[in-house]
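Closing statement on the adenosine-5'-diphosphate sub-project.
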Amino acid sequence: MSVLLDARGLTKRYGDFTALDGVSLTVSEGEFVSIIGPNGAGKTTLVNIVTGLAPPTAGQMSFRGLDIVGAGPVTLARRGLARSFQLVNVFPALTVAETLAVAVCARLGRGRRFWSSLGADRAVHAEVGEIAAVFGLADRLARLARTLPQGDKKLLDVASAFALGPELILLDEPTSGVSTADKHAIMDVMVGAARRLGVKAIVQVEHDMDIVFGYSDRIVALHQGRVLADTTPDGIRRDTEVVATVLGKPRS
Ligand SMILES: Nc1ncnc2c1ncn2[C@@H]1O[C@H](COP(=O)(O)OP(=O)(O)O)[C@@H](O)[C@H]1O
Ligand SMILES: [Mg+2]
């Protein structure tokens, strides 16, 4: 299996506080990886560093064998790595269609000739329609993004990340703030979208253990900035220390 992301010894300090402490993470094509851990474990910090939003204090990272330390989110998106946010900020003045068009343009516009081509508008329009349909947003294209209910805002943020056409996508709590009943539907949409849109691997931060155990090939448990376990769902279930620390259940 071809390795997409290879991160070694990632450390992030804020002053005296160490948010990430020598974390290594490898993601290969075809994998669905969940990052779990209690609040403050460093999950969002890890996603931020891997996606170029914050620089690591120490450590190495490569994507498809190319060094990505110091590369910003725009460069990384161009190389095939995109993310969604735990706390979503929609563009307040844009409609759903316009929000998706920003991402579609970023992808299609990678080739300079695209902008001068006659079919550019039509191509963007068609892709926006397709992504919106995949994510169940097709009937809300003309709505201002800020007027959407919270669940749809999250979906729009995830859809925008998919619209960048990444090979690897990192989703920070994609179903937080969404009712339990809707979580599975959203996960099914995302997995289906990944298949249809050519996304090769998904990394998600997720608290809901039904979702984590139901969808993951591999689970990485973080605690106080360190990797406590990096194994299969069954491996996690059998690991009493992880179960006690991360899932908060008494050892039995
Ligand atoms: N910009 C920052 N400055 C100082 N401390 C931070 C910053 N970002 C995160 N932290 C701290 O790092 C720790 C890990 O945060 P975070 O990665 O958001 O945790 P998680 O996503 O696992 O809940 C927390 O204790 C948080 O307060
Ligand atoms: Mg977080």
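The beta strands are 3-14, 17-28, 32-36, 58-63, 66-67, 81-84, 168-172, 201-205, 218-223, 226-231. With this model delivered, the sub-project is considered complete and its resources will be redirected to Aim 3.
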